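Case study: Glutamate pyruvate transaminase.
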Amino acid sequence: MTVTYNPKRTIYADFGPRRLHADNINPSVKAAKYAVRGELAVRAEEYRVRLANGEKDLPFDSVIFANIGNPQQLDQKPITFFRQVLSLLENPALLEKPDVLSSAFGYPQDVVDRTKLLLDDVQSVGAYSHSQGAPMIRDSVARFIEERDGFPADPQDLYLCAGASSGVSTLMNIICHHPSAGVLVPIPQYPLYTATLSLLNAQCVPYHLEEEKAWGTNVRAIRESLAKAKAEGTDVRAIVVINPGNPTGASLSPEDIKDVLDVAAEEKLVVIADEVYQTNIFVGEFTSFKKRLRQLQQEVPDKYDHVELASLHSVSKGMVGECGHRGGYFELVGFDPLVAAQIYKSVSIMLCPPVIGQCLVELMVNPPLKGDASYALYSQEYNGIRDGLHKRALALYEAFKQMEGVECQEPQGAMYLFPSITLPAKAMEAAAAEGRTADEFYCLRLLDATGVCVVPGSGFGQKENTLHFRTTFLAPGTDWVDRIVKFHAEFMAEYK
Ligand SMILES: Cc1ncc(COP(=O)(O)O)c(C=O)c1O
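Here is what the predicted structure looks like once written out:
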């Protein structure tokens, strides 16, 4: 298409039929990459549609979307208490028939009580709320954080958001003031971070995690990346930490967290702690960045006083798995009140996060307790999901251990395994002949042969000359794991 530029009128004259075409839209959008929903996911969806239309010529009878942490797409059942409350919030007329709710539908009284409490606060889930989120919901979140960490939390510092993604976007928009602005991002990472930085035309400053140390955070690697970026003229302003990790599943120790806070304090970096997997922990205990920061502030005078920390949580993960409802929050610690005022303004431009998602945040942070009518079923469902995830993680890990050329760190948390794969030279050549990276080639072949959709390691970043893929362990059953094992053996034999 021919495009000419008329300097007098400073407009582009476009000879095509449309004003917008692929070469004149925002280049930052084109530059952004998000592998989790990339080519593989598109092809997997095509296979799903073909199977749904009754096609019989595919070598598999179901597609397994192991590319994305989307629990309820993979048959995780919603927690009954949450959905009972949501159903009444959406249709409060049902509250006028408490007998029917109880006798016909088995809704316990605490469901009705919680719904009324929430409605007192939000009035209707169809109404806009306060831009930071409904006050009573923020009070509940503050109580949850206080109980979790043993340190106070102020509802004024809490911002409910439409999932953690929206919170990350808000924070990055505030942090990235100029194309020279940079943010330290772990590699491998969840591509939300690199994609958001691309959208903002800012710099991703990668720091590598240590695969051989269960994907731990290496503070030396952080300092080296930081020094290099600064020498190249990047104004490094923040560091992202994902704990527990995606795609790595790693869970950071209090010492690891201190190391990061030390760098942040010494180098004046805002810490963005993505803690959406805080309840998906199999090994050890979750320590929040907020708790560790408050401890250090008590133990060491002055050093940590000015650390700025934004921590994120979400209803999407954990045993809640309500990612379609888009609920989450972030908490600001140590921010200048004038910066917080600008953050408030920027969220207020979007009016408010989805109110039903806010209500789910409240239910997540304030679930039924022992003695409540819903407690028995809630804990049975919650523990069942947690144990099922752990069991599946271990089964997948065991399967990977048997596969030639595959190495995997023991699962510690989150919803993913991120094994490394060593492929034969012939497979590497075949990938190059197709103009693909070898991990992408492997994952496409896996999808074509088995219907199992995973994501190549290159979508998250990986050290040079290493190959990985990421799979969730959310899909029920073991048939799909057997499919991967069989495919892998055949693939390795084909390219020997
Ligand atoms: C580390 C991490 N942060 C944030 C998100 C996005 O979460 P939400 O659905 O709350 O936007 C995800 C989703 O997979 C994630 O893995």
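For the exam, be able to explain this: The first helix runs from residue 27 to 31.
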